[in-house]
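Input/output pair, single chain:
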Amino acid sequence: MSRISTLGVHESVDDVFPATVFRDALADAVPSVRIVDDADDVSTCDVLVTFRYEDRFLDAGLDWIHSIQAGVDRFPFEDLESNGITLTNSTGIHGESVGETVVGYMLTFARRLHVYLHNQRDHEWTTPAWDEPFTLNGRSVCVVGLGTLGRGIASRASALGMRVTGVKRTVEPVPDVQQVHPQDELLSAVEGVDFVALACPLTEETHHLVDEEVLAAMDDGSYLLNVARGSVIDEDALVEALRGGELAGAALDVFEEEPLPADSPLWDFEEVLVTPHKSGSTWEYYQLVGELVYENLERDERGEELINRVV
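Output:
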């Protein structure tokens, strides 16, 4: 099918799905599909599908690297380009899973499910105060970043009767979003909303995008939700805002340091949900990534531009 003869599946994909399952799914895509571990010679591969980046990839003579994640901030773009290595990512496949996760966060806070879970663990039959539970219908969410992830959040929030606004670099109509703000209006965009959901890529512009000033602009009753990258938030500022009662709570799937250190204060807030960078997880994930890789192998054979090309 493809002029590419050997596709390597780096063992690091085991962090997301079994490398063997992915290898078997692509067994008929090229003449040879094999798992590559840290001791293997990567130079025997034409293409490498990986979760992790290693410096040895640069000098291995690879034609193309595919990241099984959408985020590729760990890859050195300039070095890859100078070594003639194409980089593609898995953007476009996470809208459903991440959107449902964010709705799960909002429902958990609204319906106080985390409180009931804690009570169950402690064998306590107690209820929240009468004015704590609420419904999502009629509530508001501002989605920062309206790509695949943000649109997945927006469509599901809108279906639950929420008012959805968003922040986007280029202001243009987005389905299910009632108002789109440019990024320089972030402070006013987060004022007066019940939830702020971060779904933007990590770039120089978005590093610590949510800082002390943005947190102060949010209402005391607002919840911050992060399914973007950990460094989009200034975590020290977030901890201080939570301690000071400046936010109602937060749901965090990503962190500046992962795994989240055991001594992080974020573990101990009752109104903070911590999930281990798994908002995009689904058992079909390997199939979705495989479909992207398979299509690009066909495109390569036809001499066409690869989809999801980053470099």
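The two ends are 24 Å apart (CA to CA). The longest strand covers residues 6-10.
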